[in-house]
What we know:
By secondary structure, this protein is mainly α. The protein contains eight helices and four strands. The longest helix has 18 residues, at 159-176.
Amino acid sequence: MAVEAVTQTVSNPQAYAALAKTLPKILIRFFQKFPPGRPYATEPQRPPRPEPVIRKAEDGTEEVISQPSPQDLLRASTPFTDPTYNPFLPWRNPITLRWRGPYYGLRRQAMLCKAAERHGVAELLPFSIKSPAEKLRRREERGLRVKGTGEEQKVKGHKWEREMKGKLRERKEAMLKMDELVREWKQKGHGRGWKNWPSGKAK
């Protein structure tokens, strides 16, 4: 589905029924739990803790009017009561201040994003680092994350690859001095008196 069609679907809730008939079950179940169109968070969430209602008097004193009820604390400790809760990102409990991992792990996020991309509804999913748009953005921002491809770096390679440049340079120098080497070889009796045969490393 094209981007224009997805935009029309978001603006027209009645089109969701027709769209759902073309989607696999994994996406239908996800959209039932997390309907598209909500303002989902795009970064790890840190909701505030319910605070008591305090009224400040004219003399500067403060008076506690009401305390959060147990129901309020219980509701705040559940991420599903927050309409902006993103199931692809971590969430911090405002009561215990402990982090809760994403509702969907990275493997399931990748499955959902790939399925949504195949059916052209990737724009309807909440923000995820596995989404095609986020992958493209990170690739453009960070480039190739391969060791040795950065500035003033080189890939280690095999030993013969690392020594090839030096060997070619020595071979080229030996070929340039070949006439002088042959002349010296003839003057000294065609090799008699030489301890070693000449090579590219001969000086």
